[in-house]
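User: Here's a protein and a ligand (adenosine-5'-diphosphate). What would the complex look like?
Assistant: Let me lay out the input and then the predicted complex.
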Amino acid sequence: MFLGLDSSTQSLSALVIDPASGSIVREVSVNFGASLPSYQSPSGFIPGGKNGEVHADPRMWLDALDMALGKLAEDFDLSTIEAVACSGQQHGSVYLDHSFAQRLATLDPVQPLADQLSAALTRATAPIWMDTSTGVECAEIAAAAGGNAEVCRLSGSVAIERFTGPQIRRFYKQDPAAYERTAVIHLVSSFIGSVLAGKNIAIDHGDGAGMNLLNLQNLDWDESLLDATAPNLRAKLPAAAASPSIAGPISSYFTTKYGISSSCQVVLSTGDNPSSLVGMGATSPGTMVISLGTSDTFFAAMENPVTDPQGFGHVFGNPAGGFMSLICFRNGSLAREALRDALGLDWSAFDRQGLAATTPGSEGNLMLPFFGPEITPRRDFDGPVRKGSAEFEAAGNPPLQVRALLEGQFLNMRLHSQWIGEKATLIRLTGGASQNDGIAQLVADIFQAPVERFAIANGAGLGAALRAAHALGHDLTTLQAAFCKPAAGSRLEPDPATAAIYDRALGDYKALLSA
Ligand code: ADP
Ligand code: XUL
C-alpha cells in the first residue's frame, strides 16, 4: 500500500492505493475551515489581508496532518504503507530557524506536531499562492536579474507576485532580522514532507520551478536569481532534487503514534499541479489537462522547456522527468458563478437555457470573460467586456450571455496556450465544473479534441500516492493504466462542424482583446 497526501488551499487529504488490486482503498479529508475553526480561516487562509497579502498559519497544516492520519488509523492498518509522498498548493513558503532540524529529530509522539514545531517559525504565517502583495519586489528582481525576459529564460516564468522568490524578498525587506534568523525556507509541500521524514528534505524540480529561483537548464538554484532575491539565500534553501527521490524512512513520531512501519519511506514532495499531472495520467506529451476548479488551470507535459513569450504561462518540472506547462486563469468558476447568480440560474439551467438554447459562435457576439482581475492575460479591472448586438452589449438575452462567457473563457484558454506549440490530441477534464456536460462538449469543440473525464476528484492526492509507489520501483505507466481511467461513458468527441466557427471566433476574440 502507498499513501498520498495533498495539502491544498482548503483541505488536507490522504489517499491509500493498493497497486496489486489497482484500487484506492481509503480516502479521508480534513477541511481547514470546518475542522479547525480556531484558526479562523474558513477558506484555508486568514481573511482580510492588506495590500494583497494572503497568508495561512502553518500550524493549521500540522494539526490537519495529525487529524488526517488519526482518522485513517481509526479503521486502517497503517503498518501496510510502504511509502508516502506529499503534494501541496504551490508557491507558498514556510520560514524556520536553526531549531527546526533538532525539533524534527526529537518529536514526542504524545504531543501534537504544531505545539512542538511552532517555536521554530521565524515568520508566524506563510504567504500562499493567492498573495499578490509583491509587485514591487517582482520589478526589483526583474531589474536586478537583467529583465523579465532573462528571468523567464532562466526560471521558466517572469517574476510573478505569488511565486516564492518575490515573497522571500518581501520578507527580507520587511523584517531583515527575522530573515537573518531563518535557517531554512520550505515550500508547503517540502515542509510537510520534512515533518514526515523527521529532517529537512530537498525541494523537487516540479514545485521548485514555481519559485523564480530554479535554473531550468542545470536544475539547481540560479546564482543570479538568488542574488536578485535576497542575501545569503542559497544557504537557507534545501537542495533541489529529482521528484522520484527517496528522502529516507518516516519519523518515529508517526510509527509510534499511528502505527506506520519504521521501514516506510518518505518520497520527495511536489506541487499540486505536477502531482495532478501524474494523477491524471498525463505525464507524456499530447494529453492536456484542464482543471475547472475555483480557478481554471491548463497543463501538459512538454518535451522541451519552451517559455511563454507573453510571460503569462509557466514551466515546471514534470515529476516523471522533463517539463510541464502550466497556465492559471483566475476567472474560472468565480466568473461562471458570478454570471449564474446575476441571471438567477442553477447549473442545470445554465447548461440547458444557456448552451442548449444557443448556437456555437454566439451569433457573432463576444465576451472578454473577466468578472474580476485576471492573470492570464493580465487585467487589473473588474467586469467583462461585451461586443456585439446592442441587446447583447446591454447584457440582455441571458442564454447568449452564458454561451458568450463560456466561449470567451475557452477561446482565451486556447489563445493563451498556443505558446506551448503542441495541439491537444486528448483533453482530460477535471474539477467541479467538468461534470457539466455542456461545458465539457464546448471544450471538445473549441479545442477540436476528444475530452475524457475522471471519476476521481482528487487528482493531486492520487498523483502523490502513485509517485510513492513509482519511487519504490513500481512502473509508472502500468500504475497510470490501472488508476487513471476515464469514467465509463464520459468521453465526448468534438463536433467537426464547429471547427471553422471557432477558428474564426478565435481571431475575433484576439482582436477584441488587443483593442
Ligand atoms: P477547488 O478544488 O478549486 O476548490 P473544485 O474543483 O472542487 O474547486 O470545483 C468547485 C467549483 O465547481 C464550484 O465553485 C462550482 O462553481 C463548480 N461547479 C460544480 N458543479 C458544477 C456544474 N454542474 N456546472 C458548472 N460548474 C460547477
Ligand atoms: C499554480 C497555482 C495554483 C496553486 C494552488 O501556479 O498558483 O494552482 O498550486 O492550487
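Summary: The longest strand covers residues 23-31.
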